Amino acid sequence: MSEESMKDFMDALEGSMKRIHSGDIVKGKVISATNDAVFVNIGYMADGIISKEEFSHDEEVDLKEAVKPGDEIYVYILEVNDGEGNVALSKVKAEEHKVWDEFEESLKEGTTINVKINEVVKGGVTANVKGVRAFIPASQLALKYVEDLKSFVGKTLDVKVIELDKDKKKVVLSRKEVEKAEAEAAKDKVWASLKKGERRSGVVTRLAKFGAFVDLGGVDGLIHNQDLSWKRILDPSEVVKVGDKVEVYVIDFDKLKGRISLGLKEVSDNPWNSVAAKFKENDIVEGTVVRLTDFGAFVQIAEGIEGLVHISEIAEERVTKPSAVLNLGQKVKVKVLSIDDKSQKLSLSIKEAAHSEEREEIKGFLGDKSEGLTLGDLLKDKFKDFKFEE
Hints:
Helices cover 24% and strands 35% of the residues. The chain contains 9 helices and 20 strands. It has helices at residues 3-16, 52-55, 63-66, 91-109, 176-193, 275-278, 322-325, 350-366, 375-382; strands at residues 25-33, 37-41, 48-51, 72-79, 87-90, 113-121, 124-129, 132-137, 156-165, 170-174, 199-208, 211-215, 220-224, 245-254, 259-263, 284-292, 296-302, 305-310, 331-340, 345-349. A hairpin with a 4-residue loop joins strand 14 (245-254) and strand 15 (259-263). The longest helix is centred in the N-terminal third of the chain and has 19 residues, at 91-109.
């Protein structure tokens, strides 16, 4: 090859090679890896070499496991010639430069970044994100209050950037924002899938005097006391406790108002299904006073079955206030005046039960002649020939 041809060849070869400078970030392809270094083809006349220290902040990293021949990675040019004819490269510094682009994207677009929590500091925790120290305030670690910050050390979390200042190397992250977005997505999923009458699993999250709140997977529904059990209850703790896993029925829901009504009691267990078989009109049964109102008293005559004794049916004499003559928990005999299966209502009478017993006593004393007589009639007949001495 002539001298001129050789010169043309060298010029062409040099023209085909990249021109690189210290501080450039380029993409390369892994050639091989040893225990101490990774060799990379960066399209230059000399191959690049990454020492273990410049490959990762993790001192325990296994380079042979971390990369394979053919892997493409971004590298930072430390030196064009390290003194041995190789290009000194750094994967760590390339990541440190590129991570600021990720921070910018997370701040503007809301994308998440995966980080590992390193240590607890005053007011929160820190994470090393590809060589950049980032801060997560305690208030941004979770949606709920965090009692023990140390419990997060070593954990890997998806976070969002909420504050950024590249000049001051300041990065503030939030796990709370990610959880908030996840919670909203979960809520939307629940609302979109709700159907009246369907059965769902949930967890009791809170008890109130009027019922129990159940988490359906992002949205809370309420089981009113009357829908917790067929029997009358005064407090939801009689049936459930916080943390219980329960199977509930969706009674109704209103997305605009954010309300979901749930039921725990089984429809098939409705005690009213067997009322007709157990009770008939004019039956006299024993019951328990379970509620007193201004207009009467509610008496339970079987588990989950109660009826109203109107104030006019409590006693023969005029009653102005049911609580003046009856007590909660008091056992009383009542007569079934009417049964309304459809409305699940019972009309009862203490007064009529007493009359019926009275008539039975008369009948037992006089036999069939007592038909239609009252105790007053009986006494009048019994003592009709009695004369008082003057």
